[in-house]
Amino acid sequence: MADRVSGKIVLLTGGAMGLGKASAKALLAEGATVIITDIDEAAGAATAAELGENCHFLPQDVTDWDRWQELIGEVESKFGRLDVLVNNAAITVFGSIADLNPEDFTRCYTVDVDSIFMGCKSAIPLMAKGGGGSIVNFSSAAGNKPSPDLVAYNSAKAAIPMMTKSIALWCAREQNNVRVNSVQPGTILTPNVESVIAGTPDPAATKEAFSIAQPIGRMGEPEDIAHLVVYLASDESKFATGAPFIVDGGLSMA
Asked: For a tag site, which of 44, 53, 112, 128 has the least CB within 10 Å?
Protein backbone atom coordinates (compact mmCIF):
# COMPACT_ATOMS: atom_id res chain seq x y z
CA MET A 1 0.00 0.00 0.00
CA ALA A 2 1.14 3.55 -0.65
CA ASP A 3 -1.98 5.62 -0.15
CA ARG A 4 -3.11 5.13 3.44
CA VAL A 5 -2.92 8.88 4.06
CA SER A 6 -3.06 10.03 0.46
CA GLY A 7 -3.83 13.72 0.11
CA LYS A 8 -3.72 14.45 3.84
CA ILE A 9 -1.95 17.57 5.11
CA VAL A 10 0.17 16.73 8.14
CA LEU A 11 1.91 19.10 10.56
CA LEU A 12 4.62 17.35 12.59
CA THR A 13 6.72 19.04 15.28
CA GLY A 14 10.29 18.07 16.08
CA GLY A 15 10.64 16.56 12.63
CA ALA A 16 14.33 17.15 11.96
CA MET A 17 15.52 13.84 13.38
CA GLY A 18 14.69 10.72 15.36
CA LEU A 19 11.09 9.64 15.74
CA GLY A 20 9.85 12.80 14.06
CA LYS A 21 11.92 12.21 10.94
CA ALA A 22 10.96 8.53 10.82
CA SER A 23 7.28 9.38 11.17
CA ALA A 24 7.50 12.03 8.46
CA LYS A 25 9.19 9.55 6.12
CA ALA A 26 6.50 6.91 6.73
CA LEU A 27 3.66 9.40 6.22
CA LEU A 28 5.21 10.64 2.98
CA ALA A 29 5.55 7.06 1.74
CA GLU A 30 1.81 6.63 2.26
CA GLY A 31 0.88 9.71 0.24
CA ALA A 32 0.71 12.58 2.74
CA THR A 33 2.03 16.09 2.38
CA VAL A 34 4.09 16.71 5.52
CA ILE A 35 5.11 20.02 7.07
CA ILE A 36 7.85 19.39 9.61
CA THR A 37 8.82 21.99 12.17
CA ASP A 38 11.86 22.21 14.40
CA ILE A 39 13.78 24.74 16.45
CA ASP A 40 16.95 23.61 14.64
CA GLU A 41 16.44 25.38 11.32
CA ALA A 42 19.47 23.93 9.55
CA ALA A 43 18.61 20.35 10.47
CA GLY A 44 14.94 20.84 9.68
CA ALA A 45 15.65 22.28 6.24
CA ALA A 46 18.13 19.47 5.50
CA THR A 47 15.61 16.81 6.49
CA ALA A 48 12.89 18.35 4.33
CA ALA A 49 15.26 18.46 1.37
CA GLU A 50 16.24 14.84 1.96
CA LEU A 51 12.65 13.61 2.22
CA GLY A 52 11.52 15.20 -1.04
CA GLU A 53 9.18 17.71 -2.60
CA ASN A 54 6.14 16.74 -0.52
CA CYS A 55 8.00 17.53 2.70
CA HIS A 56 8.14 21.17 3.76
CA PHE A 57 9.98 22.80 6.64
CA LEU A 58 8.85 25.69 8.82
CA PRO A 59 10.91 26.91 11.80
CA GLN A 60 9.20 26.73 15.17
CA ASP A 61 9.83 27.00 18.87
CA VAL A 62 6.93 24.89 20.15
CA THR A 63 6.87 26.80 23.45
CA ASP A 64 6.01 30.06 21.68
CA TRP A 65 2.23 30.60 21.62
CA ASP A 66 2.42 33.43 19.08
CA ARG A 67 4.45 31.24 16.73
CA TRP A 68 1.77 28.54 16.96
CA GLN A 69 -0.80 31.07 15.75
CA GLU A 70 1.43 32.18 12.88
CA LEU A 71 2.23 28.59 11.93
CA ILE A 72 -1.39 27.47 11.69
CA GLY A 73 -2.11 30.58 9.63
CA GLU A 74 0.76 29.72 7.27
CA VAL A 75 -0.51 26.16 6.87
CA GLU A 76 -4.04 27.36 6.10
CA SER A 77 -2.78 29.97 3.66
CA LYS A 78 -0.57 27.55 1.72
CA PHE A 79 -2.50 24.28 1.97
CA GLY A 80 -6.07 25.32 2.78
CA ARG A 81 -6.60 22.87 5.61
CA LEU A 82 -4.95 20.66 8.22
CA ASP A 83 -5.83 16.97 8.52
CA VAL A 84 -3.25 15.66 10.98
CA LEU A 85 -1.20 17.17 13.82
CA VAL A 86 1.65 15.14 15.29
CA ASN A 87 2.95 16.70 18.52
CA ASN A 88 6.33 15.00 18.69
CA ALA A 89 8.76 17.71 19.88
CA ALA A 90 10.09 17.04 23.38
CA ILE A 91 13.14 17.10 25.62
CA THR A 92 14.41 14.73 28.29
CA VAL A 93 15.46 16.38 31.53
CA PHE A 94 17.42 14.21 33.94
CA GLY A 95 17.44 14.70 37.70
CA SER A 96 15.97 13.44 40.95
CA ILE A 97 13.84 15.38 43.42
CA ALA A 98 17.08 16.05 45.34
CA ASP A 99 19.18 17.51 42.54
CA LEU A 100 16.81 18.90 39.89
CA ASN A 101 16.31 22.66 40.08
CA PRO A 102 12.86 24.25 39.66
CA GLU A 103 13.86 26.01 36.44
CA ASP A 104 14.73 22.74 34.68
CA PHE A 105 11.59 21.07 36.02
CA THR A 106 9.49 23.88 34.56
CA ARG A 107 11.43 23.78 31.28
CA CYS A 108 10.60 20.09 30.87
CA TYR A 109 6.89 20.76 31.32
CA THR A 110 6.97 23.79 29.03
CA VAL A 111 8.45 21.83 26.13
CA ASP A 112 6.82 18.45 26.71
CA VAL A 113 3.34 19.37 27.99
CA ASP A 114 2.56 23.04 27.39
CA SER A 115 3.54 22.76 23.72
CA ILE A 116 1.00 19.98 23.17
CA PHE A 117 -1.73 22.05 24.78
CA MET A 118 -0.82 25.00 22.56
CA GLY A 119 -0.62 22.82 19.46
CA CYS A 120 -4.01 21.23 20.02
CA LYS A 121 -5.65 24.55 20.90
CA SER A 122 -4.21 26.19 17.80
CA ALA A 123 -4.93 23.39 15.34
CA ILE A 124 -8.37 22.12 16.33
CA PRO A 125 -10.37 25.05 14.86
CA LEU A 126 -8.70 24.66 11.46
CA MET A 127 -9.07 20.88 11.52
CA ALA A 128 -12.74 21.16 12.47
CA LYS A 129 -13.28 23.74 9.74
CA GLY A 130 -12.01 21.20 7.21
CA GLY A 131 -14.30 18.43 8.44
CA GLY A 132 -12.14 16.89 11.16
CA GLY A 133 -8.83 15.15 11.51
CA SER A 134 -6.45 13.30 13.79
CA ILE A 135 -4.07 14.53 16.49
CA VAL A 136 -1.24 12.31 17.71
CA ASN A 137 0.42 13.38 20.97
CA PHE A 138 3.76 11.81 21.87
CA SER A 139 4.02 10.61 25.44
CA SER A 140 6.44 7.89 26.59
CA ALA A 141 6.64 4.61 28.46
CA ALA A 142 8.43 6.79 31.03
CA GLY A 143 4.97 8.11 31.85
CA ASN A 144 4.06 4.62 33.05
CA LYS A 145 7.31 3.39 34.58
CA PRO A 146 9.08 5.71 37.04
CA SER A 147 12.78 6.28 37.43
CA PRO A 148 14.31 7.98 40.48
CA ASP A 149 16.35 10.25 38.22
CA LEU A 150 13.53 11.40 35.89
CA VAL A 151 11.17 13.26 38.21
CA ALA A 152 10.34 15.93 35.62
CA TYR A 153 10.24 13.70 32.55
CA ASN A 154 8.26 10.92 34.24
CA SER A 155 5.59 13.27 35.48
CA ALA A 156 5.44 15.34 32.28
CA LYS A 157 4.99 12.28 30.10
CA ALA A 158 2.36 10.92 32.50
CA ALA A 159 0.36 14.12 32.08
CA ILE A 160 0.10 13.81 28.30
CA PRO A 161 -2.25 10.78 28.05
CA MET A 162 -4.70 12.38 30.48
CA MET A 163 -4.60 15.72 28.70
CA THR A 164 -5.16 13.81 25.46
CA LYS A 165 -8.24 12.11 26.93
CA SER A 166 -9.67 15.44 28.07
CA ILE A 167 -9.18 17.04 24.66
CA ALA A 168 -10.53 13.96 22.88
CA LEU A 169 -13.65 13.95 25.02
CA TRP A 170 -14.27 17.64 24.37
CA CYS A 171 -13.87 17.11 20.63
CA ALA A 172 -16.23 14.13 20.72
CA ARG A 173 -18.89 16.15 22.53
CA GLU A 174 -18.43 19.00 20.07
CA GLN A 175 -18.96 16.48 17.25
CA ASN A 176 -16.18 18.16 15.27
CA ASN A 177 -14.75 14.86 13.97
CA VAL A 178 -11.32 15.55 15.48
CA ARG A 179 -9.78 12.47 17.09
CA VAL A 180 -6.98 12.76 19.64
CA ASN A 181 -4.75 9.88 20.74
CA SER A 182 -1.39 9.48 22.45
CA VAL A 183 1.62 7.31 21.64
CA GLN A 184 3.86 5.90 24.38
CA PRO A 185 7.15 4.60 22.93
CA GLY A 186 9.62 2.58 24.92
CA THR A 187 13.37 2.90 24.45
CA ILE A 188 13.92 3.50 20.74
CA LEU A 189 17.35 3.47 19.11
CA THR A 190 17.26 7.03 17.80
CA PRO A 191 20.32 9.24 17.21
CA ASN A 192 19.74 10.83 20.63
CA VAL A 193 19.75 7.46 22.39
CA GLU A 194 22.80 6.40 20.38
CA SER A 195 24.63 9.53 21.54
CA VAL A 196 23.70 8.83 25.17
CA ILE A 197 25.03 5.28 24.83
CA ALA A 198 28.23 6.47 23.14
CA GLY A 199 28.86 8.91 25.98
CA THR A 200 28.93 6.24 28.69
CA PRO A 201 32.12 4.56 29.96
CA ASP A 202 31.16 1.20 28.39
CA PRO A 203 28.85 1.78 25.41
CA ALA A 204 28.50 -1.92 24.61
CA ALA A 205 27.41 -2.73 28.16
CA THR A 206 25.03 0.24 28.21
CA LYS A 207 23.42 -0.82 24.94
CA GLU A 208 22.98 -4.33 26.28
CA ALA A 209 21.42 -2.99 29.49
CA PHE A 210 19.01 -0.82 27.50
CA SER A 211 18.09 -3.81 25.37
CA ILE A 212 17.41 -6.30 28.15
CA ALA A 213 15.35 -3.71 30.07
CA GLN A 214 12.66 -4.39 27.48
CA PRO A 215 11.04 -7.77 28.13
CA ILE A 216 11.01 -8.33 24.37
CA GLY A 217 14.80 -8.29 24.55
CA ARG A 218 15.74 -5.37 22.31
CA MET A 219 15.32 -1.66 21.87
CA GLY A 220 12.75 -0.46 19.39
CA GLU A 221 13.49 0.97 15.97
CA PRO A 222 12.12 4.36 14.85
CA GLU A 223 9.98 2.59 12.24
CA ASP A 224 8.16 0.71 15.03
CA ILE A 225 6.65 4.02 16.11
CA ALA A 226 6.35 5.52 12.64
CA HIS A 227 4.02 2.71 11.55
CA LEU A 228 1.72 3.50 14.46
CA VAL A 229 1.70 7.19 13.59
CA VAL A 230 0.60 6.32 10.05
CA TYR A 231 -2.23 4.18 11.42
CA LEU A 232 -3.43 6.95 13.74
CA ALA A 233 -3.17 9.54 10.98
CA SER A 234 -5.15 7.36 8.58
CA ASP A 235 -8.87 6.70 8.41
CA GLU A 236 -8.11 3.13 9.53
CA SER A 237 -8.19 4.47 13.09
CA LYS A 238 -11.47 6.38 12.65
CA PHE A 239 -13.03 4.79 15.76
CA ALA A 240 -10.02 5.43 18.03
CA THR A 241 -9.93 8.53 20.21
CA GLY A 242 -8.65 9.31 23.69
CA ALA A 243 -6.55 6.15 23.67
CA PRO A 244 -2.96 5.65 24.86
CA PHE A 245 -1.12 3.42 22.38
CA ILE A 246 1.79 1.72 24.16
CA VAL A 247 4.62 0.45 21.96
CA ASP A 248 7.43 -0.31 24.38
CA GLY A 249 8.49 -3.93 24.03
CA GLY A 250 6.72 -4.69 27.31
CA LEU A 251 8.74 -2.16 29.33
CA SER A 252 5.69 -0.85 31.16
CA MET A 253 4.99 -4.35 32.47
CA ALA A 254 8.51 -5.05 33.74
From this structure: 53
CA dihedral 224, 226, 231, 235 (to 10 degrees): -170
Active site residue 153: yes
Count CB-CB contacts under 10 A for residue 174: 11
pLDDT means over runs of 10, the chain (254 residues) = 91 98 98 98 98 98 98 98 98 96 98 98 98 98 95 98 98 98 95 88 92 92 97 98 97 86
- Is residue 190 within 8 A of residue 253, CB to CB? The reply is no
181, 135, 4, 190 alpha-carbon torsion, rounded to 10°: -80
Q: Which of 153, 185, 186, 230 is catalytic?
A: 153
Domains (range + CATH), the chain: 9-191+225-246 (3.40.50.720)
Long-range contacts of the stretch 163-168 (C-beta < 8 A, 24+): 163/113, 163/116, 163/117, 163/137, 164/137, 164/139, 164/242, 164/244, 165/242, 167/120, 167/124, 167/135, 168/241, 168/242
